[in-house]
Design goal:
Elements (H helix, E strand, L loop, with lengths): L11 E10 L2 E11 L5 E4 L6 H9 L6 E6 L10 E4 L10 H11 L7 H11 L15 H13 L5 E5 L7 H16 L3 E5 L3 H7 L2 E6 L2 E7 H6 L4 H7 L6
Parallel strand pairs: 3-7, 3-8, 5-6, 6-7
Antiparallel strand pairs: 1-2, 1-4, 8-9
Helix pairs in contact: 2-3, 2-4, 4-5
Length: 242
């Protein structure tokens, strides 16, 4: 991967987006822009709509009302987006072959596979584990392998759904270091987290969601030092939002 100009699929723009499942509103009139630069971090209580917003931005689920555009285009989600789910599924093959499968799916020529596998495993700190069955990796190692597979697409935008949930501090730090590394290479990261400390460490801007509504969005420093809304103040203080 190399540094690139601002991604052509950015900005991703939500305009009054609503997503309903039956009579239940999952996202409620969301207007939001994901722009090139430092990571955008989504926070909020469980059930606030973070995962649904990520999936909609990826183009995985349709919107009920409103619209989403990618680099000014609305027809279809672009191809150079990648998504890492909270509990990624490991293929029944080695660590290296998991990455090879992702490279083949991304259309990378076979002659480049060996060098790209080595590069990606080095990036995520799994060098030397190429032959280990992926399902025998630790939880943190599996999450790093999921990141390597996602990065095999050479994405312009990388969506992460609570990538450090249930990981110990050392495994969490490893994931955060990867986020910093890919950000430095020009990849836009949009991630959901339940960890306010992680949001403070990684975010360029913060999005607070509650009950499907966008409560507050702004630069991370301003959000944590001078939150504008009562809900944000309560959430930062560790109080329950009901």
């Amino acid at each position: 991967m190399t540094m690139r100009a601002p991604a052509s699929d950015l900005p991703i723009m939500f305009s009054e987006v609503e997503i309903l499942v039956g009579d239940v509103t999952i996202l409620d009139r969301i207007s939001l822009i994901f722009a090139p630069g430092l990571p955008t971090v989504l926070i909020g209580p469980n059930g606030s709509g973070k995962t649904t917003l990520l999936r909609a931005a990826m183009g995985l689920i349709p919107v009920t009302r409103g619209r989403i555009s990618w680099g000014g285009r609305e027809a279809a989600a672009p191809q150079r987006l990648a998504f890492v789910f909270q509990r990624p599924v490991m293929l029944r093959r080695s660590t290296g072959e998991n990455v090879r499968y992702a490279l083949a799916a991304a259309g990378v020529p076979r002659g480049q596979h060996a060098s790209r596998i080595a590069e990606l495993l080095m990036l995520v700190g799994l060098t030397g584990l190429e032959r280990r069955p992926a399902r025998r990796l630790s939880g943190g190692e599996q999450q790093r392998l999921a990141l390597a597979r996602a990065l095999a697409r050479d994405p312009e935008v990388l969506f992460l759904d609570e990538p450090t949930a249930s990981l110990d501090p050392a495994a969490t730090k490893a994931i955060e270091d990867i986020v910093r590394a890919v950000t430095a290479r020009g990849v836009k990261v949009v991630m959901a987290t339940h960890d306010l400390g992680e949001a403070k460490r990684l975010a360029g801007d913060v999005v607070l969601l509650h009950r499907g509504r966008l409560i507050e969005h702004g630069p991370a420093s301003e959000f944590f030092e001078n939150p504008r809304t009562q809900e944000a103040r309560k959430f930062i203080a560790g109080e329950l939002l009901v």
